[in-house]
Amino acid sequence: MSKDMPILPSFSFIRRRRVHLLLKDKYKDLLLKQGVEDLDAFLQRRRQESKHLQGRTLHPCVPLREGEWMVVRRYSHGGLFRSITRDLFLFGQRSFREVVLTEEVRSCQIPTIQPIGAIHRLVFPFFYRAHLLSLEIPSAKDLIQYVRELGPHPHGESLSLKRKTIRSAGLLLKQFHQAGFFHRDLQLKNLLVAENQVLLIDFDRAYRRKKLSTRERMKNLLRLNRSVEKWKLKGLGVTRTDRWRFFLAYAGDDEDILDAMRRALRFYSLRFFFYRLSWALTKPSNES
Question: What is the full DSSP assignment across 41-76?
Answer without folding.
Answer: HHHHHTGGG-EEEESSSEEEEEEEETTEEEEEEE--
